[in-house]
Design a protein that fits this description.
InterPro entries: Nitroreductase (IPR029479), Nitroreductase-like (IPR000415). The chain is an alpha+beta fold. The protein has 8 helices and 4 strands; from the N terminus they run ααβααβααβαβα. The chain has a single domain, classed as NADH Oxidase.
């Protein structure tokens, strides 16, 4: 088993960041480390214990470059529509641009997907994604514990059909998240700034 970082549960939960500029593009990531983290992630809950998720791990350089190109194209359109209001937004935008530039060069890409049987429901889709996204976040936590970083991304979904065709994903399965995975340059991540709890907490009513 891979040696784990000395993080207690609260430290793990509060220091698992979206890692972009600190992804180590030069250090190989053994497939067994990712599968070990996925074994942990599979303990996450799914609706009715259905376990209809699927995990596509990409390590082939040519395939990663193609997926990265779709991501970069989607990011270019997305960023062109955004207005950067402050320094924090500009820092995040710079980091996101960097990730778009290097997505295809990250040692591994992991796509989390789920079996739907066909089209997504027209109404509230929480029941669908609630059976995938907890597992994807558990994967991010398990990777962090092993000294690896990731960043939660969905922009490639603009080209979901093209990516599905490239990877042979059947039309009965929908993608929900793309995680670039690499060892991190250092492991000293800290909690991020967040709104005060009082601004988002509602007890008994809004």
């Amino acid at each position: 088993m891979t040696e784990l970082l000395p993080l207690d549960p609260d430290q793990l939960l509060t220091t698992t960041r979206s890692v972009r500029k600190r992804l180590d593009l030069d250090r190989p990531v053994p497939l067994e480390v990712i599968t070990e983290a996925l074994e942990v992630a599979l303990q996450a809950p799914t609706g009715s214990n259905s376990q209809t998720w699927h995990w596509i791990v990409l390590t082939d350089p040519e395939v990663k470059e193609k997926v990265g190109a779709y991501y970069a194209r989607s990011f270019a359109a997305y960023s062109a529509e955004r207005t950067l209001a402050d320094d924090t937004a500009r820092r995040v935008a710079s980091s996101a641009q960097y990730l778009a530039d290097i997505m295809g060069k990250v040692p591994a890409l992991v796509i989390g997907a789920i079996y739907t049987g066909g089209d997504l429901p027209a109404g509230n889709q929480a029941g669908v994604w609630g059976s995938l996204l907890p597992g994807a976040w558990s994967l991010s936590l398990a990777l962090r514990a092993r000294g690896l970083g990731s960043a939660w991304t969905t922009l490639h979904l603009t080209y979901e059909k093209e990516v599905a065709e490239l990877l042979g994903i059947p039309p009965t399965v929908h993608q929900g998240v793309l995680l670039p995975v690499a060892y991190t340059k250092g492991t000293d991540f800290k909690p991020a700034g967040r709104k005060p709890l009082d601004e988002v907490l509602h007890i008994n009513k809004w």
